[in-house]
C-alpha cells in the first residue's frame, strides 16, 4: 500500500492520462476511495463524458460526490481515513466563471480547507498555458486564473506529478510506483 502525501497535484495537457494516473494513485493507497466530480454538464458531449466517467468507476469501490462549485463544503465533509480525488480543478474553475463567481475568492478558500484537512487529496488539473494564446479575452482570463491556481496549488502540494502521453514524472517530491 502506498502512503499518500497530504496533497498531490497531478497536471498535464488535455487527454494526457492524468485522471487515469490519479485514480491509480488513489487506488494504490488501500484507503476508501472518494471521487469529487466537479464537471458541470453544458452540452451533449459533456453529458457523454460524464456518463463514461461514472460507468468507469461503477462497482470499483468509488464513492462519487458531485460537488458543483462548493468544494470547500465537500472538503470539510471528508474523513481522515479515506483518499480523495478532485477531478478536476479546471472544470471547477470553469463552473465558477460560468456562474459569475470569483475564482480569486474561491481558490484561497479551497486551498485553506485542504491545508486544514487531515485527509490525503489528489487534485487533477490541466496545464493550459502550454498551448496557443487564446483569441478571446475570456479565454485569456481563464488561462491566467488556471495558471495562478496551478502555481498556488503546486506551492502547497507535497507532490506534483506531470503526465504527458500517459507517462508520469515528478516535478516535486518523488514519483510513486503505481500499478498499470
Structural class: alpha/beta
| Shape verdict | globular
What share of residues is helical?
40-55%
Q: How far apart are the termini?
A: 15 Å
Describe the structure in your own words.
The chain is of the alpha/beta class and 180 residues long. It has helices spanning 18-28, 44-57, 71-76, 89-98, 103-116, 137-156; strands at residues 7-12, 33-37, 62-66, 83-87, 121-126, 159-164, 167-172. A 7-stranded mixed β-sheet has the order 3-2-4-5-1-6-7, sandwiched between helices. Helix 4 crosses helix 6 and helix 5 runs parallel beside helix 6 (137-156). The chain is globular. The chain starts with 6 loop residues before the first strand and ends in an 8-residue tail after the last strand. The model has no long low-confidence stretch (mean pLDDT 92).
Summarize the structure.
The protein has 180 residues and is α/β, with parallel strands linked by helices.
Which descriptors would you attach to this protein?
single chain, 180 residues, alpha/beta, 7 strands
Topology (elements, then pairings):
Elements: E1 7-12, H1 18-28, E2 33-37, H2 44-57, E3 62-66, H3 71-76, E4 83-87, H4 89-98, H5 103-116, E5 121-126, H6 137-156, E6 159-164, E7 167-172
Parallel strand pairs: 1-5, 1-6, 2-3, 2-4, 4-5
Antiparallel strand pairs: 6-7
Helix pairs in contact: 4-6, 5-6
Amino acid at each position: 500500500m502506498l502512503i499518500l502525501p497530504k496533497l498531490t497535484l497531478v497536471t498535464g495537457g488535455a487527454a494526457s492520462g492524468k485522471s487515469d494516473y490519479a485514480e491509480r494513485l488513489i487506488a494504490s493507497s488501500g484507503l476508501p476511495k472518494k471521487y469529487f466530480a466537479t464537471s458541470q454538464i453544458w452540452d451533449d458531449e459533456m453529458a457523454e463524458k460524464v456518463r463514461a466517467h461514472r460507468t468507469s468507476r461503477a462497482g470499483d469501490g468509488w464513492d462519487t460526490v458531485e460537488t458543483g462549485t462548493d468544494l470547500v463544503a465537500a472538503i470539510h465533509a471528508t474523513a481522515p481515513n479515506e483518499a480523495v480525488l478532485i477531478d478536476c480543478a479546471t472544470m471547477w474553475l470553469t463552473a465558477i466563471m460560468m456562474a459569475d463567481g470569483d475564482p480569486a475568492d474561491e481558490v484561497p478558500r479551497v486551498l485553506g480547507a485542504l491545508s486544514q484537512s487531515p485527509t490525503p487529496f489528489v487534485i487533477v488539473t490541466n496545464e493550459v498555458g502550454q498551448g496557443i494564446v487564446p483569441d478571446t479575452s475570456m479565454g485569456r482570463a481563464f488561462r491566467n486564473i488556471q495558471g495562478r491556481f496551478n502555481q498556488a496549488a503546486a506551492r502547497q502540494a507535497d507532490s506534483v506529478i506531470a503526465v504527458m502521453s500517459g507517462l508520469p514524472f515528478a516535478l516535486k517530491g518523488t514519483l510513486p510506483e503505481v500499478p498499470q
